[in-house]
Amino acid sequence: MGTIPPLRVRSGWHDPSSRGKGTTVTRKGFIRNIRPLEILTEDQIWQVHRATLDILRRTGVAFRSQWALDFLEGEGCHVDRSSMRVRFPESLVEACLRRVPSSYRVTARDPDNDLILGGSTLYFTHSAGMQTLDIDTYEPRDPKKAEYTDCVRVLDALPTIDFLSCYPYFGYEGLPPAMAIPESVALKMRHSTKHQFTCYSSECEIFNIQMAQATGQEITGTLTCSPPLTWGDDAVQAARRMIEAGFPLATVDGNVLGGTGPATPLGNVAVCNAEHLSMIVLVQLIHPGHRISVGHFACPMNMRTGSPAFGQIGGSISNVIWNQMWRHYRIPCSNGSPGYVDSKMIDFQAGYEKGIAALASAASGVNVMLLHLGVSAEISAHPVQAILDDDIAGMVGRFIEGEIISEETLALDVIHDVGPIPGHYLGTGHTREWCRKEQFVPRTGEQSSYQAWIVKGKPSALDHARERMTEILDAHEPEPLTAEQEEDIRHILDDARAFYRKRGELE
Amino acid sequence: MSNDTLEHLKQAILQYDGDAAQRWAKKAVEEGIDPLDSLAVLTRAIRQVGDAFGRGELWLPDLVGASDAMLEAAPIIQADIDRRGVERQNRGTVVIGTVKGDIHNIGKSMVATLLTAEGFEVHDIGVDAPPEAFIAAIQEHDPQILALSALMTTTAPQQKRVIEMLREEGLREGVKVMVGGGGITEAFAESIGADGYDPTAPGAVRLARSFVEG
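Output (structure tokens, whole complex):
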């Protein structure tokens, strides 16, 4: 693999992971204050866990990386070289599970945007689309660079987006595929002060890491499994580089029920668990205690087309079981499927698909949820959809915050004071104090009186979202990078272009 | 009775029974049935399943079950064709593979199986295939059609890279490029300069037929 090339940056690297010591500033997210929705009994949790260990011990997981095979064999795993399959002793898996921190801080460019992943906290982020789309005709197309930038600015502005995820689009007009990820990471660093999760391709994690170091922030490196039960060499390589840089990791599955995973959510969770645990073992053996979270991205297969059926409820059943398992393991977990829908438009179908999936995931205790932005499966995404999703996130987040149980909220004194009609609660101090705390008022949902709605020209939530996008773009300008950081980013991107030219991946 | 044997062979495909398909294919060879007749039965059976799939009566697991069963029988029949030196009508030549970074096999193999059943000569270069491997296969087999698969949206841009390399190597004009995979759309196929796209395996076969039949 080789190590990460030394930084040639002027702004210099300071370790943001030390920022957590002595400070409590972070994004709040939503704190779940309700009992989690559960499907499994305690015995059934152990049944799934035993099944997972059985898969790891008997069937094993393929690592298409000679380095990983050598390393894991040296650590006591059974390695079949011909099939590149690794079989894991149960004791090793259990030991590595215990090494994973149950909650941890990750840093952002702005300390107010640091995150503490784990526990009862729910953070939201966005999904991604290959392209943007025209929201009048719903035809997908490549975004222009300015549209890509505007999308990132909207994501930075939305209060329920706690960090940025991979992309949001797979590229923009004129951007060569080889540079899609490094340019995307750079663009997000320039136009957002939030933490970001990054993906990898053709070793671009080298440049992602360097850009994070140059701008004094951490990035989380996602590691994507190739289901079923297979890790590619590129994932192993990216993991090693991120560990070397001291940056957190997030494994992601992606099993489609009935295609790359069993048709049954329970069996699918067992397979996915094995995929994640196999990488957790590798990571914890390389660096005990390394920060890592796990991401479930499951949905049924549309058996007529072979495409993932993102909007089907089966994905939520898998998410709820999954979340219960990883709360049991005490490892921060995320759900990806609420961010993707089968609907091809910003419409009723998109709303119910996202709303139901988001509520099921949040109520079952997930720590991170992809929700905003995705319009048509993984095909397209749009910031107007993200603005509508901001309201879904607000409502779902408010729901899991539950109710503070106290004498104050029980309101017995004010109930006695008000009594029957003509008494009312509108003029009480209790109402003035609590109505704002208790209510989440959607920003784009149509809330006017009927008459006012007629006078305003019968606007829809979509109309309000379009207006809000204009308002955000007129007003929101995140803190820019310093001149030195900007220059460093430019140098690193130049290095990336030279790297890909040399490899023949760029003209 | 050869008719009985061929009927059993057909039923084995329709019941997704690979063991039975293999057994009845061997029996057909033993009985000296013209292997082109046996192959025609396999093609009719798989087309019947494909048509029912197209009407929405059958689902993908049915299509995969039938094509897997056919994969058990087809090599036995093909070996008999080779042994007898029978000339098989070839509809055209296809190079197929899953692009670099993507190791998913199901969709690509299903299309390869159905194309074979349809009478195409198919060269499957496997999964995680770099653009150079597609170029080498085209130079070796001189196909009319190149079929590129990518299940993951993250690897879909690799289809574009292969098409770019075809242009760079001066091979683009001589081959029709069809693309497929879970995350691919008609618009995406157009945007990367592919000649055709279909979301289903039977549709991919229709597309291939249209390429060679003009």
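The longest helix of chain B spans residues 60-84.
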